[in-house]
Specification:
6-stranded mixed β-sheet, alpha/beta, single chain
């Protein structure tokens, strides 16, 4: 209850961070979190399926995102999901398993942006730019040409920081070249893939480069953290 009590009235962009649930989403508990408000977003950094993925797994995940008691309080527009390597087959278009889903209970960020006005950030400085990548980039494209230079919140499955285990080097290079964020004074990068990654750190992309906040969201045995973002910094609960 300590985390819930300490964040109940805290103003800011609230990010509930999840990754690598591998069809074990039913074991995830949100009981330690305060009730969501209009500034709360759920971010899933991919690998919600286990290999081999099936339509049944996708349907079950979609149902959970819509019906789990905590998640049901958050509109689908603010539940943002990217595709991991276990959610995709290299020889079959990854969208195939999704044909069984009639109504999505979340928003899939397949190399695309969404913008939100966040009520708990100062008026005039509260329009936040989210961008999510798929695990595999489109053929004949580069990450640098795909990721918007001014995204505030970047969601990737593979780590995008040099030196992290399982990091995608081309993705890291693209992130290191990004420009200033759209609204926030720093960039927040969320990823999973490496299952030991469960942390919040502030470091530059490259020595002497821009400082970014990095979130490792792989679940493991950890409850999903709540990350509160304001214009002065980031806190992790």
């Amino acid at each position: 209850m300590a985390a819930a009590d300490s964040t109940r009235h805290r103003a800011g962009l609230k990010l509930v961070c999840i990754s690598d649930t591998h069809n074990k989403h039913q074991t995830v508990s949100f009981s330690h979190l305060p009730p969501p408000d209009d500034s709360t977003f759920v971010l899933h950094a991919g690998d919600f399926c286990k290999w081999p993925n099936t339509q049944e797994q996708v349907v079950e995940f979609n149902d959970w995102m819509g019906n789990e008691p905590y998640l049901s309080l958050i509109p689908r527009e603010r539940k943002l999901v990217v595709v991991g390597n276990h959610d995709h087959h290299p020889l079959v278009p990854w969208r195939a398993p999704w044909r069984a889903v009639k109504d999505f209970n979340f928003t899939l960020l397949d190399n695309r942006s969404v913008f939100f006005d966040v009520p708990d950030l100062p008026e005039g400085a509260n329009r936040v730019h989210f961008f999510g990548t798929s695990y595999h980039k489109p053929i004949l494209s580069s990450w640098q040409s795909i990721i918007p230079s001014d995204c505030d919140i970047l969601i990737t499955h593979a780590p995008c920081r040099f030196g992290d285990r399982l990091a995608d080097d081309e993705l890291c290079q693209a992130v290191a070249r990004l420009g200033r964020p759209h609204t926030l004074p720093f960039r927040v990068c969320l990823s999973g893939h490496a299952h030991e990654r469960h942390f919040l750190e502030q470091t530059p992309c490259v020595p002497g480069g821009e400082l970014h906040w990095w979130i490792g969201a792989a679940m493991g045995h950890h409850p999903p953290p709540l990350v509160v973002v304001t214009h002065t910094g980031v806190e992790y609960f």
